[in-house]
Design a protein that fits this description.
Elements lengths: L3 E10 L2 E11 L4 E5 L6 H9 L6 E6 L8 H4 L3 E3 L12 H9 L8 H7 L15 H13 L5 E5 L7 H16 L3 E6 L2 H7 L2 E6 L2 E6 L1 H8 L3 E7 L14 E7 L2 E6 L4 H10 L4 E7 L3 H9 L8
Parallel strand pairs: 3-7, 3-8, 5-6, 6-7
Antiparallel strand pairs: 1-2, 1-4, 8-9, 10-12, 10-13, 11-12
Helix pairs in contact: 5-6, 8-10
C-alpha cells in the first residue's frame, strides 16, 4: 500500500488555483521531495496531506485513510514539523520535549531521542540560545515523540548554515533507514538531489515531473556532454554507433559527444584505437536545474 495517494487534487481560493489536478503516489520507506519555487503549491499540498485543509475536488489518502475525516486515527501514525512560534523560547530543550510528550498516551524515551538527534548536550539549553540547525533538530524530535511512521517536513533546512544542513540530512537518512517515510518540501535543488529518493517537481500548482534523480535527468535533458579537443579531428561517424551516444558534432574543431551512462571510456577507447590523440577534455553532467529549465523554460534560483 502506498503511504500517500493523491488523485486529481484541486484546491482553489476564490480566484486563485493553488493546486491544479495533482496526482501522486508516495511509496513507504523513502525520502520523497516536493521541489518547486516559492508559491508553486508545495505547502498547500503538504497541508492537504496532513489533513490541515481539504481539496476543492479530488481525493487524498494517507496510510489508507482520509487525512481530514480520519485525522484522529492518523494522529499517532504521522508526525509534522512544528513552526518556530509553537515552542516557548525560554524553556529548555528537555522541558519542551517533556511538555509535548504529555499530549500523547505513549511516547519514546526522551533521553534516547535526544541522543539519536545529537541533542544530549543541549538538553538543559534554552530554545532561544540554540543555533538554527539545533532548533530544527528539536522540531524533528518533537515530530518523532510519538514514534510515527510518516513524517511531513516543510522547508526544514531553508534557514540553516551548510554544516547544519548536512547534519540534518544525515538525521533524515537515518530515520528513513529505520523504515519511516519522510515527505519534505524544498526549493533547494541541491537538497533534493542529495537527499531525496524520489522527487516531484511542482510548478504553478501542477506536478510537472516525478521520479528518481537519474530518471528525471534521463527523461528531461539531453544527457551528459563530453567535449574533446584532438590532434586530428575525427569524423562524427566514428562514434555514432556507440549505444549510449545520442549525438556527435564538431563545434569549431571541438568534438562534442552527447550521451547517457558511462559512455566516456568507450569513446576514449574508440579514439585511441583509431590513433586519434585527445589533447583536452571537458565533461558537463546535467542537473536538476537543467530539468527544471527544460520543463518550464526558465531557471529556478535558490531561494526563489
Amino acid at each position: 500500500m502506498s503511504a500517500v495517494t493523491c488523485r486529481d487534487v484541486h484546491r482553489r481560493f476564490k480566484d486563485v488555483t493553488a493546486l491544479d489536478g495533482v496526482s501522486l503516489e508516495i511509496e513507504p520507506r523513502q525520502i520523497f521531495g516536493l521541489l518547486g519555487p516559492n508559491g508553486s503549491g508545495k505547502t498547500t499540498l503538504l497541508n492537504q496531506l496532513q489533513g490541515l485543509d481539504h481539496p476543492t475536488s479530488g481525493t487524498v489518502e494517507v496510510l489508507g485513510l482520509d487525512p481530514v475525516r480520519q485525522r484522529d486515527q492518523l494522529a499517532t501514525r504521522m508526525g509534522s514539523q512544528l513552526q518556530e512560534s509553537t515552542t516557548i523560547p525560554r524553556l529548555t530543550v528537555a522541558e519542551v520535549l517533556t511538555t509535548f510528550a504529555s499530549f500523547y498516551d505513549h511516547t519514546r524515551d526522551i533521553d534516547d531521542l535526544l541522543a539519536e538527534l545529537g541533542l544530549t548536550s543541549k538538553a538543559g539549553s534554552r530554545i532561544e540560545r540554540l543555533s538554527g540547525g539545533q532548533r530544527q533538530r528539536v522540531f524533528i524530535a518533537l515530530a518523532l515523540l510519538h514514534d510515527p511512521e510518516l513524517l511531513f517536513l516543510d522547508e526544514l533546512t531553508s534557514a540553516v548554515d551548510p554544516q547544519a544542513r548536512l547534519a540534518i540530512w544525515d538525521v533524515l537518512r537515518g530515520l528513513r533507514d529505520q523504515g519511516r517515510t519522510i515527505v519534505i518540501t524544498t526549493h533547494s535543488m541541491a537538497e533534493a538531489a542529495a537527499l531525496c529518493d524520489r522527487i516531484a517537481i511542482i510548478d504553478a500548482g501542477r506536478i510537472i515531473a516525478e521520479g528518481t534523480l537519474a530518471e528525471l535527468i534521463g527523461r528531461h535533458t539531453n544527457g551528459t556532454v563530453l567535449r574533446l579537443e584532438t590532434e586530428t579531428p575525427p569524423t562524427p561517424e566514428l562514434l555514432q554507433d556507440i549505444d549510449q551516444v545520442t549525438s556527435v558534432t564538431l563545434d569549431g574543431g571541438v568534438l562534442v559527444v552527447t550521451g547517457s551512462g558511462q559512455f566516456t571510456p568507450v569513446v576514449m577507447a574508440r579514439l585511441a584505437a583509431a590513433g586519434i590523440e585527445v589533447t583536452a577534455m571537458g565533461l558537463t553532467e546535467p542537473t536538476l536545474e537543467d530539468v527544471f529549465l527544460t520543463l518550464t523554460g526558465r531557471a529556478m534560483r535558490e531561494g526563489e
